[in-house]
Amino acid sequence: MLNKHTSKQIIGTKSEVLKGKKIVLCITGSVAAMECPIIARELMRDGAEVYAVMSPAATKLITPDLMEWATGNPVVTQLTGKVEHISLAGDHPDTASLVLVAPATANTISKIAYGIDDTPPTTVVSSAVGAGIPIVIVPAMHESMFRHPIVLDNINRLRSLGMEFVGPRFEEGKAKIAHIDTIVAYVLEVLTRPKDMKGLRVLITAGPTREYIDAVRFISNPSSGKMGVSLAISSIQRGAEVTLVYGPGTVEPPPLAKVVSVESTRDMLEAVVTNLKKEHYDIMISTAAVSDYGPDTKIDAKTPSGKKDFAVKFVPLPKVIEKAKEVAPDIFLVGFKAEYNIAKEQLITCALNKIKKANLDMIVANDISKENAGFASNSNEVYIIDKSGEVTHIPLSPKRVIASRILDIVVKKYEQKVLELQKSSLTPRSAEE
Ligand SMILES: Cc1cc2nc3c(=O)[nH]c(=O)nc-3n(C[C@H](O)[C@H](O)[C@H](O)COP(=O)(O)O)c2cc1C
C-alpha cells in the first residue's frame, strides 16, 4: 500500500486560506504550460488540493508525470469509464471548488464559448458550468491571436456568463499568461469572496432606453449596460437573486438573472413598477441611462426623406427611479448620476440633490466626460455617496471592480438600515404585510 504522495507535504505550509478547497487546473496547449507546476504548488502551499487535467496539445509541451509530481494527484489526460469530468466537476458534494483554465489557448477559449467539449479540459469546463462551479480563465497566446475579433468576442461571451479572466499581460508581442502571484491572488479572492447577499432579492435596471420619433427613428444614448450587468453578475456571485430590467444594451445579460427586456422609458417604468408590486425586493439599483426627454408624439410611419425641415417637440418623460419608493417604500434604493464635465464638488452636490428628490438611500455619481470612464467604456471612476453625505471615491478601475466596491457598501448600508428599522420595530417587509 502506497503512502500519501510526498509532494503533498507542502500543502498548507504558507497559509490555510484554501484548506479543504479542491482546485481543478485545466492545462491547454500553450508554452505557458511550463508555469503550471509552480501555479499548482503555490495553490497547494495555501492549503488547496490540486488536480491537473491536460489537453493532448498540452501533453506535447509538458509531461503529465511532471504535473503528477507537482500535485501529488493522478493527472487526467483522457476521459474513460471513470467519467473523470464528473468526479472532478460534476454536481455533487465532493466536486471542485474552482476550475482554473491556465494557460487557456485561443482554441480552448473559443470552444468553451460555444459549448464544444472534445478535450478533457473543455469537458471539465462544460460540466463545471452546469454545476455552477466558479471558472477562472487565464489566456496565453501571441498578441496576433488575441487580437482576432472572434477570440475577443468569445472572451466577452464567457465574461457575460460569469466566467472570470486574469490577464493577459502584453509584452514582447505576446498576450502572456498573468504573473503566477496574480493568478494565485485572484483564485484566493474568488474562493474567499463573501456570500453576503444570500437570500437578498435585487432589482437592477441597466442599458439605454429608446424614444421613437417615427416608426424607424429614435433618440437614445451610448450606454452599453456594462455597469448594470457587472452589478448583476457580482450580486449573483455573492448569492443574491437578481432581476435585470434591461434596455437595449450591447453586453449579454448573465444567464442566472431573470431578464426583463424593455425598450422605452415608459416600458422600463412599467416593468419596474410591475415587478416591485408583484414580488418583494430588498434592494433596487438603478444604473439605466433612461432618456429624460422623448418626442411628444410618435409618427406611426417612416417619415419620407426630402423634407425641408422636420421639427420634433420633446417633452419630459417619467422618472423611473422616483416611482420606486412609491411602490416599495422600504426598498434600499441606489441611484446613479451621470454628469458631463463638472467639478467634483458640483458632481457631489448634484448627487445629494438627487438623493433627496428620489428618496434614495445611496447614489453613485460619475463624470462621463473623463477619459475611459462612463458610457460604454470598460472602466469608470465614481463617487459613492450615502444619505448622510458620506463620500467614498473609487479611482479609475474596471467596471467589475467598481461593481464589487459598490456592493460592499450597499450590503453594509442595507444591513444598517434593516437594524434601524428593527429598532423602530418595523421590518423592511412591513409595507407588504
Ligand atoms: C510550441 C507551441 C506553442 C503554442 N503556444 C500557444 C499559445 O501560447 N497559445 C495558443 O493559443 N496556442 C498555442 N499553440 C497552439 C495550440 O497548441 C493549438 O491551437 C492547439 O490546437 C490547442 O489545443 P488545446 O486548446 O486543446 O490545448 C502552440 C503550439 C505549439 C506547437
**Spatial separation of the terminal alpha carbons:** 64 Å
Rg over C-alpha atoms, rounded to the nearest angstrom: 25 Å
CATH architecture identity of the largest domain: 3-Layer(aba) Sandwich
Number of separate helices: 14
The shape is globular
Q: How much strand content do the residues show?
A: 15-25%
What are the key terms here?
binds flavin mononucleotide, eight-stranded mixed beta sheet, alpha/beta, 14 helices, 433 residues, Rossmann fold, five-stranded parallel beta sheet, 20 strands
In short:
This protein is α/β, with parallel strands linked by helices. The chain is 35% helix and 22% strand.
Fold topology:
Layout: E1 22-27, H1 36-45, E2 49-54, H2 56-59, H3 64-71, H4 84-89, E3 98-104, H5 106-113, H6 120-131, E4 135-139, E5 141-142, H7 143-146, H8 149-160, E6 164-165, E7 169-171, E8 174-176, H9 180-191, E9 201-206, E10 211-212, E11 218-219, H10 226-237, E12 241-246, E13 258-261, H11 265-278, E14 283-286, E15 293-295, E16 314-316, H12 320-327, E17 332-339, H13 344-358, E18 362-367, E19 379-386, E20 391-398, H14 399-423
Parallel strand pairs: 1-2, 1-3, 3-4, 4-6, 9-12, 9-14, 12-13, 14-17, 17-18
Antiparallel strand pairs: 5-8, 7-8, 10-11, 15-16, 18-19, 19-20
